[in-house]
């Protein structure tokens, strides 16, 4: 595969924040989550800081994940909660807190019946609609919100009225990552080293059934990403490997394709766009991979610009033949890179 026309990424900006824990991009804006707040930058206007989403609860802890629905933002937090924000139609857009999940209304509806409680620890029960440990990931797909937690479960919520619809005991250890593909197929990555593949089953009640377990990784699965069409999946682990998977038989099975090696530390973040895969690692570097599941992926570029492990990253189209890559490290520094291809 010819790569001669690609150039070394150029660092175009450095944004200093407070202990950035996750990044996300939406409609030309960059969202940087940290402890008790989310900073918003304009990617199209010199990376100007335009807003801050503040959580007034000091116990909320760090923001673990950010996802977007129509005029809403869903954020996952250390304090076991999901927060919903309304995006205003102003210019520049502003944000206000809309709800905290599970909602008070949902709790009141369920708290009387003993059947709505599950045992989470010895002598300790919680409502099944509640996460009881940090919410580590959140994804919006169609009219649903999917959350995963260190409590070993994933839950499904209505994106419109914010009710919890389903809760699934998914793994034997903390769930770190989630991705949702076509027809609502859910992929969960866990500290137990396993990726669970879940499909919805119709019946008296809709429920998710485990249809596959991918256990090729030798250590904690930290990140999962699907390509834009959903037919390829990428997983990153503390074993320093990135694995490529391909959906087969109309999406009902998924097969291992190859292992991408090169990072010298745990894989902490993955992001895919077009035929590119970008990975961030504990080794303080980013790698840009290019290819497809038929011909294989190849590392075209190594970016060595951080002084601390790369915890999160996001890539957006910046032109017909260019990408903008934003990467955040554990020291709170966000680097913005321009990549021509």
Mind explaining what this structure looks like?
The protein is an all-beta fold. The protein is 2% helix and 58% strand. The strands form eight sheets. Strands 1-30-29-28 form a four-stranded antiparallel β-sheet, with no helix packed on it. The model has no long low-confidence stretch (mean pLDDT 93). Pfam families: WD40 (PF00400). InterPro entries: JINGUBANG-like, WD40/YVTN_repeat-like_dom_sf, WD40_PAC1, WD40_repeat_CS, WD40_repeat_dom_sf, WD40_rpt. WD repeats lie at residues 168-208, 214-246, 260-289, 303-341.
Number of E-state strands: 30
Structural class: mainly beta
- Weakly predicted, low-confidence segments: none
Strands side by side in the biggest sheet: 1-30-29-28
Please, how many helices? 1
Look at the structure and give the mean pLDDT.
93
Kindly provide the radius of gyration, computed on alpha-carbon positions and rounded to a whole number of angstroms: 20 Å
WD repeats: 168-208, 214-246, 260-289, 303-341
InterPro entries: JINGUBANG-like (IPR045182), WD40/YVTN_repeat-like_dom_sf (IPR015943), WD40_PAC1 (IPR020472), WD40_repeat_CS (IPR019775), WD40_repeat_dom_sf (IPR036322), WD40_rpt (IPR001680)
Pfam family, one: WD40
Keywords: Repeat, WD repeat
The gist of it:
The protein has one helix and 30 strands. It is an all-beta fold. A hairpin with a 2-residue loop joins strand 12 (135-141) and strand 13.
Structural topology:
Layout: E1 10-16, E2 22-26, E3 29-33, E4 37-42, E5 48-54, E6 63-69, E7 72-77, E8 82-87, E9 95-101, H1 104-110, E10 117-121, E11 124-127, E12 135-141, E13 144-149, E14 153-158, E15 164-169, E16 175-180, E17 186-190, E18 195-201, E19 207-214, E20 221-226, E21 232-237, E22 242-248, E23 253-260, E24 267-273, E25 276-281, E26 286-292, E27 296-303, E28 310-319, E29 322-329, E30 333-340
Antiparallel strand pairs: 1-30, 2-3, 3-4, 4-5, 6-7, 7-8, 8-9, 10-11, 12-13, 13-14, 14-15, 16-17, 17-18, 18-19, 20-21, 21-22, 22-23, 24-25, 25-26, 26-27, 28-29, 29-30
